[in-house]
Amino acid sequence: MTIDPKKVLRLNLPQWQGGDHPDYRIGARVLAAIAPEPLGPEETVAVPEAHDDVRPADQGIVSRQPLLDLAAAAMSAIRRHSPDAVVTLGGDCLVNLAPVAYLNERYGDDLAVLWVDAHPDVMGAGQFRNAHAHVLAMLMGIGDPDFVAAVPKPVQARQILYVGLTETTPFETDFIAKHGLARLSPEDLAGSAEPVLDWLRAAGAKKVAVHFDLDVLDPTLYDFLLLQDPAAKPNTYEGVAKGRMRFEEVARILTAVDAEADVVGLAIAEYMPWSAIQLSKSLQTLPLLGKR
PROSITE patterns from the entry (predicted)? Predict the structure, then answer.
């Protein structure tokens, strides 16, 4: 790694609106608290709490304008520092819109994007109301025009590799095939980084941005994932693709990538520490701490 740690921006973005799940805000704040201390600058984007139980869709996207405002605030925070690299702690998956857009503008074709995720994040408003499932398509210049306008230089399909991608819907499968996106399933990886390194060498990129959605992990092994919501009704997540990787496998792959190229972006998304979330809600019932 040749990145100066003092030129790595830590961006805390407790955004929940992209997944329309207010608990993402708590998860992001906990993640920021337990992550290793940054050696470079740190920015925290203020994200308001949810005040209404029902948030209507605008042009097919829930909380559309707040999300556009947060994307602009995140980009402004990044540009204040012009960092060589960005670590983003979220929050729903849309937190990585501004960081990858910035990094692709800075490094261009020398940037590869590893999308470590159980889901491809290429839907649009016609397929899903929550924009966290749209983010990679938006980065490619596809989707809601105002979000696409927030990406100065679209990411090309040849720059993208899915790592740990599981089952996809017919729409997602067609999108991936149409655009020629490379994908590696957990079984393709078999615990080895070599398939990722082979792709990276063929791509010729020397800089790498990593999107690490924790839902790529096996929900039977980890209790901090959305699918482990203790309050969820039975069958709530029936039919939803589930991750099949271990954290150690992901860490091994990313360490190997870091030895091969400069990792200039790392976004961690969709952390749901359910016991801390419950405690946070319980604290609101106490005098002086509770909501007025």
Answer: ARGINASE_2
Torsion of CA 213, 81, 105, 138, to 10 degrees: 40
Cβ neighbours for 144, distance < 8 A, ≥ 6 positions apart: 59, 60, 61, 64, 124, 125, 131, 134, 138
CA–CA separation, 181 vs 284, rounded Å?
45
Provide the 3-class DSSP secondary structure of residue 284: coil
Answer whether 162's CB lies under 8 Å from 188's CB. no
Reduced to 3 states, what is the DSSP secondary structure of residue 44? strand
User: Would you state the CATH architecture of domain 5-283?
Assistant: 3-Layer(aba) Sandwich (3.40)
Q: What is the 3-state secondary structure (H, E, C) of 119-169?
A: CCCCCCCCCCCCHHHCHHHHHCCCCCHHHHCCCCCCCCHHHEEEECCCCCC
Check residues 290 and 12 and name the one with the higher pLDDT: 12
Q: Tell me the pLDDT tens digit for each residue of 41-83.
A: 999 999 999 988 889 999 999 999 999 999 999 999 999 999 9
- What is the arithmetic mean of pLDDT over 214-223? 98
- If we measure between CA atoms, which residue out of 159, 147, 241 comes closest to residue 202? 159
pLDDT value at residue 292: 55
Q: Which residues are registered as beta bridge partners of 234? A: none
Going from N- to C-terminal start, the domains of the chain cover 5-283
Share of the chain above pLDDT 70, in %: 99
Q: Whole-angstrom Cα distance, residue 219 to residue 246?
A: 10
* Local structure of residue 217 (DSSP, 8 states): B
